[in-house]
User: What shape does this take?
Amino acid sequence: MTKKNGYVNLKTDKAGIGTIEFYHPQSNSLPGELLNKLATTITLASEKNEVRVIVLKSAGDRTFCAGASFQELIEIKNLKEGIDFFSGFANVINACRKCKKIIIGRVQGKAVGGGVGIASSVDYCFATKHSSIKLSELALGIGPFVVGPAVERKIGLSAMSGLAINAEKWFSSEWALQKGLYSEVFEDNDQMDNAIEELAGIISKSHVDATVKLKEIFWSGTEHWDKLLSKRAEISGKLILSDFSKNAIQKIQKK
Assistant: This one.
């Protein structure tokens, strides 16, 4: 992958901190190819003995992840293509869920839709005050069906349903902190990065077996998510074929 088409990179330092960075020129939106690469990279880092803790981040400044690629959404022509696309988000969430290493999230800016799902799937999430969130799927004629379980697990059904229903509203980073999506919120990237470096360094020195067991406890009760998220991907895959969805996406693209 080139920077023009986006990329996913994994770098591991001497302390065992594995940093996974993704990027796409359209506000870090995620087309299918990048989603698949992100899921496989998380799984790869999980299996690497030299990786003791993972930092998951995106490139750039004020946008963490704009969610699904609108260009790919508009090009979906049948149910199989729809299921395949939304399964990409399911695969990323499940890769985080099954990962043996603790994942620290770095959210430096706005997160939309699938971006909120990714932020919900890490184990400890840092953010800046610029990191407002929105579940915009209902406005597109679908719904946050795939990311919903991850978001609900993190902030509860009431807060998740509020996000899902008020699909055109930006909820502040302070709101996300109060609800438990973010663990800590900082004034700027430098302060956040210093805190991430400190925590990642501490975790990298922790007992590996202890962190593995912690992950199992954190995600207890989600063992059925392979099937659940697959079914949710099918729901979104059907709905995205509607004229309502196609028209809604086209209107947003023209803005």
Summary: The mean pLDDT is 96. The two ends are 29 Å apart (CA to CA).
